[in-house]
Structure formats: structure tokens, C-alpha cells
From TrEMBL:
The gene is hemE. Homodimer. GO terms for molecular function: uroporphyrinogen decarboxylase activity. InterPro entries: UROD/MetE-like_sf (IPR038071), Uroporphyrinogen_deCO2ase_HemE (IPR006361), Uroporphyrinogen_deCOase (IPR000257). The lineage of its organism: Bacteria, Thermotogati, Deinococcota, Deinococci, Deinococcales. The record marks D86 as: Transition state stabilizer. Residues 32-41 form the Uroporphyrinogen decarboxylase (URO-D) domain. Pathway: Porphyrin-containing compound metabolism; protoporphyrin-IX biosynthesis; coproporphyrinogen-III from 5-aminolevulinate: step 4/4. It is found in: Cytoplasm. It comes from the Bacteria. It catalyses: uroporphyrinogen III + 4 H(+) = coproporphyrinogen III + 4 CO2. This is Uroporphyrinogen decarboxylase. SUPFAM superfamilies: UROD/MetE-like.
């Protein structure tokens, strides 16, 4: 396959790991498992490290970000690491005052309200504004490579980042975002274009620094109708994904509540598409492109269920996957703070055991 001249050289380290093999939709030694938000508050070692430090301080201090990234790698037999960071990290570099408020979530003091606010947003070079991310990736790779575990880099997608920029916080209904999108289509398109540019650059820098696979988080895109996705979101997201596909590493495109959008999301042609728990895995997989892999789709709440129910539903998901190459076992959305670590460990080991080839 042809890569643009700017594409980083392809890194072959740990290419035969279960995770990278499954990302190529080849038969892996076992179904790989990792969990979105696998580093986080459900781990006492995370809470200890975060005590007295802000989220953004941890993200911006490579030693700390690397240590947090490694916490679930040391605690569990996961098949991939995901860099400790956040999809919202680029927002302050563009001029939006982001804070993670304990118990509330992300807050933006100067949210976007008008077209002029869009035009004030900067699109700075991410190697200069977020060098700590790339330094964290280099540090993590030094620790992961000898363990045989690949590292996932990530970005948010334009819609999901725009939703935070416009709402100023999380939302259940995205009213402000939709109002802006409908009332100011030209400014909306410029906003999508700014995110497309900065996110493409950011992910390219992450791959150059050593990210071996990437995930694009479009967590809230399922709030849109198919029509609105195609009209207001798909064009910039498509251009971004095509750029990302040129980086030479496999790509996952993820969203929640996307049953109706899966064919459109799949048509962007990423290696793997992420699905939440709402549709059975086999039904979701049928909505993807031929040869595309799927990531998912355990309801994270099930990790708080008794083992008999949890095991039953893991078995169900594995049966739906049917041993087909290209399944990456994950939760359908991030791990919750109430998650018992024992259940995380148990699910990972159980999936490995149940899917081991030649054993
Ligand atoms: O998955 C990982 O372990 C890597 C790290 C990671 C975080 N956030 C750390 C984090 C990743 C990949 C994200 C992505 C992210 N951030 C998304 C997309 C995935 C998803 O969950 O839909 C979104 C929408 C965000 C925005 C965000 N960041 C929210 C809504 C919150 C508050 C909710 C919460 O759980 O507190 C955050 C904060 C955040 N990001 C935390 C972590 C570990 C919790 C902060 C804390 O420890 O107090």
C-alpha cells in the first residue's frame, strides 16, 4: 500500500502480538483484550498517584503519564496499553480554558457561542504545544517493548471535541451543539476543519513518537441522526480518518449509541470499528465493511455483576464473535470508577483461556 511521503517509517516492534495481529484481521494466538479507561479511579494505585495532583498536571508530566499508563499493564494481562491522556488536551492549546473538575467532569470557561469564537481558535503545531504527549509515548514504549505489549495513541473526533467546546461541559442532549450546527453551518464547517487539522497533526506526531495503533474517539456522535452525521460531520471526519490511515498504523474508529450510524462510520474504512453493548456483536459486525474488524462490546456495568452473570455474558460475546479473526475484546464504553479490579483481571484471563489457539 502507498503511503504519503510524510508518513513515518513503519515500526515492526511486537507486530506478532495478539493485539496487532487482530488489528490486521489475522488469526491471533488468542482474542486480545484491553479496556477503554483501563487506567483510572477504580485502581487504588491510580488514586494514590492522582492525590493532590490535577488531571492536566499528570498528563503534562511525562514521568507521571507513563507511570499511570503502566499501572494496568502491571496489574493485569491486558494485550495493549493506551496512553494516559485525554481527548480534550488539545482544547487549551487552541485557546479554550479547560479544567477537569473533580466529581463534575471537564469544564470550559470560555465555550464557543458565536462564529467569531470559532475564528478566534488557534490551530498551533502540536509538537510545540503538546510535546509532553510525545515524550510520554517514548517513555512508555521503553517500558512496554520488552513486555511484548503495543501502545495505542488516540485523539477525539471533530464532532465529539466540538460538543465539549460548544457545550462547555458534558451533555445528555447536545442542544447547544445542535443549535450551533443548524444555525451557523458555515462556522460549524470551519470548526470541523480546525479540529480536522489539529487532530491529524497531533496523531501524526503521536505515531512518529511511537504509537503503534490509534483510536479515534467519537464518543457522542451517536446523538446525531444519519442525515446530520452525513451532512455536518462525516466530511471532515472522513478527511481526518483518510489522513490517519496514511500514517501506516492500524486505526480504530469508536462511538457509542451508534447502531444507526455503523454503516456510515464503517464506510470511512478504518481497520476496526468500535461498538458499544446495545447491539449484539454479530449484528453490529454485519453492519461493517467486508474484512473490517470489530472492537467491543461488554457493558462496563457488567463488571459489577456477580461472576456467573459476567462469565455468561463474556461467553455470549465470544460466541457472537465466533472465533472470527479481527475481534478485539473491550468494553462498549470506558471502565467505571466502581469497577472491582478482581473482575477486570478475571475477564481478561478468561477471554485468553477460552480463545487460546493450539492450547
Ligand atoms: O483509556 C484510558 O485509560 C486512557 C486515558 C483516557 C482518559 N480519557 C483518561 C481520563 C482516554 C482515552 C480518555 C478519553 C476521553 N475523555 C473520552 C472518550 C472516551 C469516552 O469515555 O467516551 C471523553 C469523552 C473524555 C472526556 C472526559 N475526560 C470526561 C467526560 C471526563 C470526566 C468523566 C470522568 O470519568 O471523570 C474526563 C476525565 C478523565 N479522563 C478521567 C480519566 C482517567 C477521570 C479523571 C480523574 O481521575 O479524576
Amino acid at each position: 500500500p502507498q503511503r504519503p511521503p510524510s508518513a513515518p517509517a513503519v515500526d515492526q516492534t511486537n507486530r506478532d502480538s495478539a493485539f496487532l495481529t487482530a488489528m490486521r484481521r489475522e488469526r491471533a494466538p488468542h482474542t486480545p483484550v484491553w479496556f477503554m479507561r483501563q487506567a483510572g479511579r477504580y485502581m487504588p494505585e491510580y488514586r494514590a498517584l492522582r492525590a493532590g495532583r490535577s488531571m492536566l498536571d499528570c498528563i503534562r508530566t511525562p514521568d507521571l503519564a507513563a507511570e499511570i499508563t503502566m499501572q494496568p499493564i502491571k496489574a493485569f494481562n491486558v494485550d495493549a496499553a493506551i496512553l494516559f491522556n485525554d481527548i480534550l488536551t488539545p482544547l487549551p492549546t487552541m485557546g479554550l480554558d479547560l479544567d477537569f473538575v473533580g466529581g463534575v467532569g471537564p469544564q470550559i470557561a470560555n465555550r464557543i457561542e458565536t462564529p467569531a469564537d470559532v475564528d478566534r481558535l488557534g490551530v498551533p503545531a502540536t509538537a510545540e504545544t503538546m510535546p509532553y504527549t510525545m515524550e510520554s509515548i517514548r517513555l512508555v514504549r521503553q517500558q512496554l517493548d520488552p513486555r511484548g505489549i503495543p501502545l495505542i495513541g488516540f485523539i477525539g473526533a471533530p464532532f465529539t471535541l466540538a460538543s465539549y467546546a460548544i457545550e462547555g461541559k458534558g451533555s445528555k442532549t447536545y442542544d447547544r451543539t445542535k443549535r450551533f450546527m443548524y444555525a451557523e453551518p458555515a462556522a460549524w464547517a470551519r470548526l470541523m476543519g480546525k479540529f480536522e487539522a489539529i487532530l491529524g497533526d497531533y496523531l501524526e506526531q503521536q505515531v512518529r513518537a511511537g504509537a503503534q495503533a490509534v483510536q479515534v474517539f467519537d464518543s457522542w456522535v451517536g446523538m446525531l441522526s444519519v442525515h446530520d452525521y452525513r451532512t455536518f460531520v462525516k466530511p471532515a471526519t472522513d478527511r481526518l480518518i483518510q489522513r490517519v490511515k496514511g500514517l501506516g498504523v492500524p486505526v480504530i474508529y469508536f462511538g457509542t449509541g451508534t447502531q444507526h450510524l455503523l454503516p456510515d462510520m464503517a464506510s470511512l474504512g478504518t481497520d476496526v470499528v468500535g461498538a458499544d453493548w446495545r447491539l449484539p456483536l454479530d449484528e453490529a459486525w454485519k453492519l461493517l465493511q467486508p474484512g473490517q474488524g470489530i472492537q467491543g462490546n461488554l457493558d462496563p456495568l457488567l463488571l459489577q455483576a456477580p461472576w456467573r452473570e459476567l462469565k455468561h455474558q463474556v461467553d455470549r460475546i465470544l460466541a457472537e464473535a465466533g472465533g472470527r479473526p479481527g475481534h478485539i475484546f473491550n468494553v462498549g464504553h470506558g471502565l467505571l470508577p466502581e469497577t472491582p479490579m478482581d473482575n477486570v483481571a478475571r475477564v481478561i484471563d478468561y477471554v485468553h483461556e477460552r480463545t487460546a489457539k493450539g492450547g
